[in-house]
Amino acid sequence: LTSSDWVLHMDEETFVDAYGLETCIDLIERSSVDYAQGYIFYNNHAYWKNWFLTFGDIIRVTDDLGRYQWQANCLGKPLFGVHGSFFLTNGKVENASTWDTNNLVEDYWFAKRAESLGFKYGWIPAIAREQSPRTVEDYVMQRRRWWRGIRTLGKPMASALTILSACPVFRMLISSLLYRLAFEFLQCPMIRIPPWLWALKAFDRAIVTYGFVLSLVVHDLDAGVNWKMIVVHLLMAPVLVPWTSVLEAASLLSAIFDTKTGFDVISK
C-alpha cells in the first residue's frame, strides 16, 4: 500500500451509508490525520429484541459520544481504545504498524503501535450501524475477549482502564456489604459526608446521567423509535443498569479466572 491508499475496516454486519462514505472521503482530502475512528450505533438489526443486551451496547455509544471522540479531537491519540470497525487507515500506517500480532484486541494494539510511530489519530463525524450480540453468552464472550486482550497489551493505561471499568459493580457490592456490617453488626450511625464531596458526587452523577440519556435518545431517534417508547426505555434504565453491570463484571471475572485462550467467535 502507498500513502495514497486508504483502508476502511468494517465488521461483517457493519452498514455505512452514503453520508458516512462521503465523510470518510472528506476527511482524507481535507485533514492531516493518518488513521481515524467514527461513531458506531448498535441499532441496525434486532434492536431492543433483548433489552439487556441492547442497553449494554447503548452504554458503548456513550463512550463514542464522550471519551472516544474527545481523545481523537482533542488529543489526537487513541488513549482509551478504538473499535476495529468503521476504522479508517492510511496505507503508510498499514505498512508501518501491520496487523502482525496475536493479541485479542488487535485493533487497540494496532492503534497504540501507530501512535508510538508518530502517526496522527482523528475522528470521523459520521455513523456506522451494527447490531448487538444475540445471546447473553455471546455478550459475555465478546467482553471477555476485550479484557483478555487489554490485560496482555502491556500498556499501563490499558491495565488501569480495565480495573476502573470493573469498579462500578464492585464498588456497589462492597458498599452494600460495608453498610450491612455497620448497621447490623456494629450498630454504627450513618456516616455523614462533607458537603463538598456530596456536591462532587452529585456533579459526577449528573454528567453520567446526561451522557446516558443523550446516547439513548440519539440512538433511538436514529433507529426511528417513537417518543413514547423512548420514554419507556428511559424509565426502564434504573432496572437495566444493575443487570448490565453484572454482565460486564461477569465477563471481566471470566477473563481473569478462565484459563481458556483463543479468539471467541460470536453469532450476529
From TrEMBL:
<dbReference type="InterPro" id="IPR029044">
    <property type="entry name" value="Nucleotide-diphossugar_trans"/>
</dbReference>
<protein>
    <recommendedName>
        <fullName>Glycosyltransferase 2-like domain-containing protein</fullName>
    </recommendedName>
</protein>
<dbReference type="GO" id="GO:0019187">
    <property type="term" value="F:beta-1,4-mannosyltransferase activity"/>
</dbReference>
<dbReference type="GO" id="GO:0005737">
    <property type="term" value="C:cytoplasm"/>
</dbReference>
<feature type="domain" description="Glycosyltransferase 2-like">
    <location>
        <begin position="6"/>
        <end position="187"/>
    </location>
</feature>
<dbReference type="Pfam" id="PF13632">
    <property type="entry name" value="Glyco_trans_2_3"/>
</dbReference>
<dbReference type="InterPro" id="IPR001173">
    <property type="entry name" value="Glyco_trans_2-like"/>
</dbReference>
<dbReference type="InterPro" id="IPR027389">
    <property type="entry name" value="B_mannosylTrfase_Bre-3/Egh"/>
</dbReference>
